[in-house]
Amino acid sequence: MSDAHEPPGRPITADWRFSGYGKRETEAPRGAPAHEHLVPANRKLVEALRAAGFHFEQAGDGGVEGCKIACHAVVRFLGERHEDPVLAQPFMALHEALSDLQDGTDPELFSRTREPRPRSRSRQRKHAQLVACACMSALMQLGDTRAQAARKVARAAGKWDCMEGAAIDHVTVANWRDGVRAEAGSRQEQYHRMVDDLLSGPTPASKIEQLLKSGPPGIP
Description:
Layout: E1 17-18, E2 24-25, H1 38-58, H2 64-80, H3 89-102, H4 121-141, H5 146-157, H6 170-182, H7 186-199, H8 204-214
Antiparallel strand pairs: 1-2
Helix pairs in contact: 1-2, 2-3, 4-5, 4-6, 4-7, 4-8, 5-6
């Protein structure tokens, strides 16, 4: 499947979710995909974990890519079941740390210091920029011009909490996108998977609109 490696950014849909030991609320988590019933969601989870196991054994990278695929499989399952997003946070953090390892940087998650580290604001903004780039590209594939798509994304991204105080216009967003498309490695792969995910399903325009309104999932 095209989005089997990275946790996608997805819009809210009104549905049920678990909120602790059996308690349910009529509210979907921010950024959640369309609700999926347990049997098909579980089937997709098992298929993705089989792929993760294959990569873990065969990829020749010490199992890093397989672990990333497994993390994403769990995050996707939790999202499609509209579980509390807090359940996905450890898997997202591990996925991010493994991507850092692949890129040759020292992940904060694997630091030897005993002092807990909050997730850095710069990391939040970097992820938000990637989401903005994916939204711009998806809008262009749906028919918007480069300038139209960049302006729509800029208006929304300027209101995201993690971008507070940042000066964002259509030129800024277009430059982010150009930069990501020129990169190589896991960040560009994540960008392409986000675009594919945004364009999947029967109503991609609504999906993009809701994501822009809600902001990147997993970022307060």
